[in-house]
Amino acid sequence: MKLIFERGQEGRHLSILPKLDVPAYQPDEALLRAQAPALPEVSETEISRHYSALERRAHGVNNGFYPLGSCTMKYNPSIDEEMAALPGFTNVHPLQAEKTVQGALEVLEKMEEKLSAITGLKYFTFQPAAGAHGEFTGLLVIKAYHKDRGDEARKKIIVPDSAHGTNPASAAMCGYEVVNIPSASDGCVDLDALKAAVGPDTAGLMLTNPNTVGIFDKNIEEITRIVHEAGGLCYYDGANLNAVMGIARPGDMGFDVMHLNLHKTFATPHGGGGPGSGPVGVREDLGKFLPGFRPVRGEDGELHLAQPEKSLGSMRSFFGNFLVVVKALTYVTMLGREGVLEASRNAVLNANYMRKALEDIFPAAFPVTCMHEFVISLDKLHKETGVSALDAAKALLDYGIHPPTMYFPLIVHEALMIEPTETETKETMDEAIQAIREIYERAYSDPESLHHAPHHTVIGRPDEVTAARKPKLRYQKEV
Ligand SMILES: *Cc1c(COP(=O)(O)O)cnc(C)c1O
Asked: What is the pTM of this model?
């Protein structure tokens, strides 16, 4: 397929710009570039066909099943997009006078109320642009809390090995020493290991719950108690709240700080790289450390922006990705209390339906009731047939199914992590189950064909190592 730069002719263009209705402005000569940029010169039809062709080569939730674990590739209602496209939201400027943007501020106020009801934490900031950015923000809140109390000896963050990879990375970015603790044989945090790890140097614990093997930690209250008794704070990675929202609240479990991914659980599509939103919630007394400005209702009944008393400063410009918040608010408002609960229940039901249906060939790494996702190991299949998790994942593409997450979490060999999401039907899951069973049988009858799968996609097996090590991110015009 030709790149957009390889299409078109010099001088070809489309005239869709309206006539200039303000005086033309001639910038200073010194500011002008010496050469015109090498932009493609194409017609509107060429552009339109080019992007449609690109779209056909990609797999999205509109093309088929997309059970990418830990990513929540679910259907997001288009009404959320419509609300976020309203000119009243898209045409506002962050520096506009407060009284002219009361509606936008109300969105932030209302979303904080909703998230507070869902999580049990009092205050939220919407500045963080993604989940990992939220983790970093939350950890800075924990740091500020200890510093404010004059306790500077707390230099360690405890992270179980079943945590999402961003957790230890964020803690390290924040200048903390990361203490990794192993999981017990049931996939939950090993309480003895936790007790041995906490002490006067513990700043806090970061827990991904449900964890990366899809398990809700049954000792969760005991875990937060142990950390609190040692003087640390508890951070909840709530990136995937699909199984939990409306059912259980991190605040009630004893967590002090958390983030959510609006671009996973709350209706912003992702996978293309953004925009995202990773709001951070904190318990009441930590609100004073939050970054940015929060809308506060004054005695005049209007919303005013106020910086929290001991604010961290700013994690990002203005109010974060505001339109993502508009989508999330639309989503939870449309669902209502019952709908939110039903979404969670269906996420759990779907994951357990698939887990059970595959159990005889691929038992889950931890064979207990899972939350919104589960992890299977292809270790046995690999040893017996040479067919790896990668081969099986690639083979699924020929069935029109996006592969599950591969080789993650690291604690499971030949792992495939499957998240059906709440919006898939039984028929779709049955087709996927059938496809996985067929691949299993082919592994024994014709393993060779699987080593070369997929056979029917535009690209088969790109050289992923070279792509990662030497990425070509820029078009270089041949001269
Ligand atoms: C996706 C995810 C993150 C990171 O979120 P980003 O928006 O990709 O930065 C963190 N924790 C968990 C559990 C996740 O699933």
From this structure: 0.91
